[in-house]
Give the backbone structure.
Amino acid sequence: MAKTAQKSEKTTGVVGYCRVITQENSALALSLKDQEKAIRKECTKRGFDLVALYSDAGLAETPGRPALSAALASLNDGNGSVLMVTKLDRLTRSMHVAARVLASAERGGWGIIALDSPVDTTTTEGSALIQVLAIFDEMERKLIGEREARPELSVRRPPARLGRPSTLSLDIVERIVEARKGGATWAAIADELNEEGVPTAQGGKQWYPATVRHVANAAEARQ
């Protein structure tokens, strides 16, 4: 009976998630080990049970993030009550994607802890952050909708330098075109490319709805 009572007091099970966004193998191993070490240390500090650790390499050519999907599925199946990451950008770099994940966690009854930020939904303050992110999510989606409906509201970006070669593969171009034909919004396509770390045609790190639309329009013009 004593063992059962002692076990019931320790109810916080942590599913750790690590991610690296680089293609240098030596840096990959070091970064993942550092993140795992930080998560293990925090669990020990708080007296949490580390249920499992999942890691994604974040390579641009790898479709999706299978380890993150597995971690979320595990939490939704009841195998743990907290998703822990060392930094919020390890989970996502998109504000409205973060808001959706946080809201999903609230509905599923599991929490999220990002060690580098106030995101800790196991606390009252952390839970309130969901509402703040949701407000910015709604505002961002409305602004994107306005820019798509009225192109004159879009911020005009300087054209790329002449002569600079494009590094965008035909697979990515076809993927954008097919996603749009399938009904995806420009913002949704941009989010997915950003999540996977796919570089832009000029080697940039950030996709925007206007960037994705430009690629699709250029592809149609060549047909």
In short: The chain has two domains: 2-134, 162-222. The CA atoms of residues 167 and 201 lie 5 Å apart. Strands lie at 13-19, 49-56, 82-85, 111-114.
